[in-house]
Amino acid sequence: MNNLEELFSNYKKDILYIIAFAKERFGVSDVLLRQKKGMILWAENDVKDSRIKAYGFHGNGCNFRFKSYKIDIEFTKNDQIGFTEWSFFCYAKKFYPEISEAEIKEFLLKMKETREVGTKDNLFVV
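Structure (tokenized):
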């Protein structure tokens, strides 16, 4: 396993953790609609009893802050959680400053071909 594959494995684990956190905190359906109606806080800066320390909604997604890094996710029309190429690039850049967007794009295409990730509504899903 190369460094990028190991990093992506950790990223996927964090995405799965975010999914569990989101289901527990926000419920399983209509998250964005309920957030926009004020039924879910748009941000929380002091999350207790979690590896996630803070979160903040934006557009169709939410940014989750862990102790030393952030992960940005997007919600699909069908209430799935996915991520963009840019989101993974920003995450990878934190650990490998020399990595390029082209390397990330190529890597994610390989992951899609090998079915390590799927796609839904122009997002990558685990």
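Residues 3-26 form the longest helix (24 residues). The chain has a mean pLDDT of 91.
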